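In the lab's daily routine, each protein ends up as an entry in a very long ledger. A line of letters takes care of the sequence, but it says nothing directly about the fold. The fold becomes a row of whole numbers, each drawn from a learned catalogue of backbone shapes. The protein below has been through that process, and both of its lines are reproduced in full:
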Amino acid sequence: MRASESTYKNVAKNCSSYAVKDCCKCTNKTGDVEVSCTTCKHFSENKHCKLDLFDPIAADHNFM
């Protein structure tokens, strides 16, 4: 994992391009989607944002 799960969640919540994966079974007990980079369709299998948005968002909001 490149970053902590809390960092992935914070970045995803602040990302204008976040889009849940089509095949994602990533809901919590209330049925809401767990917003995180790991549940985004732009997040690759090798733990990188395909749109190169992770680092700028994390830096802008001091998540790292």
Observations:
- The mean pLDDT is 88.
- Residues 43 and 49 are 5 Å apart (CA to CA).
- The chain is about 25% helix and 0% strand.
